[in-house]
Design a protein that fits this description.
Helix content is 7%, strand content 55%. By secondary structure, it is mostly beta strands.
């Protein structure tokens, strides 16, 4: 019995040292990349719901859920982002829940340069009741609460309102919080995110290419990809675009998907085709990822027409 518990604790400890939650729809996960990318959203405000399910063909699916709210340029003070992230890992029901607050502000002295920061309130826990033991024994859930801090910066460059460059860097886990569930010293390592986005428009098509690299301790993740947006309906009342996407996560997966943008609503689906050494076990199955977004645009103030009185 003690061996079973020991193995379980060791398994949870190994997961604690694993890389942070990763996602495939990079362009739809600004807050998890860099707090400065709050300003990258299309509208003035946006609300997002995202869901990811991975490794369904191997074990109990690893599930990630995210809900975000974006508020761009609030009274010229800065931009605010709020995110709730929940990650459930496998049969052991290792859960990571966090409430994250982000702030971003343009630096007035340098055009195109912005600075961002974030604070997270997180809880990590494992429910032993979800596991099967050789004999009945009550074990209460183990929990760990901690704070986390993030800093980020971004430089954007605009060429003739047709070509846009965004170059960003963020550093996560600045305070290196201890996340051990078994009273050990297990501090989160610093995580560095580097992202480059290049956008240009031609006729009714917008092209976005990106490069993303994340490094945390000995773990690395690199993605390159292409997002397209083709406007096939643009009237006074309706604007509809289709948004195919294709990217590659080095030594891991090919990601393909498509999105539909209609007025203020956007829905995107993508699928990871696993091509790593683990593909023999997964039969090339990877992850499903869904994103739903609702945009809000400020109404343009219209000049009021005042009729002059007639005295004739």
């Amino acid at each position: 019995m003690k061996k079973v518990i020991f193995c379980t604790l060791m398994f949870s400890s190994v997961i604690c040292r694993a890389q942070d939650t990763h996602i495939s729809q990079i362009s739809n996960n600004e807050l998890l990349i860099n707090p400065c990318y709050i300003q990258k959203i299309v509208g003035d405000y946006a609300f997002k719901i995202q869901s990811r399910s991975q490794w369904q063909s191997v074990a109990e699916p690893f599930k990630t859920f995210s809900a975000s709210a974006y508020f761009k340029e609030i009274r010229n003070i800065g931009s605010l982002g709020i995110n709730f992230l929940s990650d459930n890992s496998g049969n052991a029901s290792l859960n990571n829940n966090s409430l994250n607050f982000f702030f971003s502000k343009d630096i007035m002295l340098v055009e195109g340069l912005s600075f961002g920061t974030g604070i997270s309130f997180s809880q990590r826990y494992i429910n032993f009741s979800e596991l099967d033991f050789e004999q009945y024994e009550y074990i209460s859930s183990s929990k760990k609460n901690y704070f986390d801090f993030t800093l980020g910066t971004n430089y954007s460059l605009d060429f003739n309102n047709n070509q846009f460059h965004n170059l960003g860097l963020s550093i996560n886990h600045l305070n290196k919080p201890n996340v051990s569930l078994i009273s050990l010293d297990d501090k989160l390592k610093l995580k560095y995110n580097f992202a480059y986005f290049y956008n240009f428009s031609l006729n009714d098509i917008n092209y976005e290419t990106f490069f993303f690299h994340s490094s945390q301790n000995s773990q690395n993740e690199t993605l390159v990809g292409l997002n397209l947006q083709y406007v096939f309906r643009n009237t006074i009342k309706n604007k509809t675009s289709i948004k195919p996407l294709l990217c590659y996560r080095f030594s891991d997966a090919i990601i393909a998907g498509a999105g539909l943008l209609h007025n203020n609503y956007e829905f995107t689906f993508s699928y990871d085709i696993n091509v790593s050494e683990f593909s023999k076990a997964t039969n090339y199955n990877g992850a499903f990822e869904f994103t739903f977004i609702y945009y809000i645009f400020k109404k343009l103030q219209q000049n009021k027409i005042v009729k002059c009185p007639s005295y004739i």
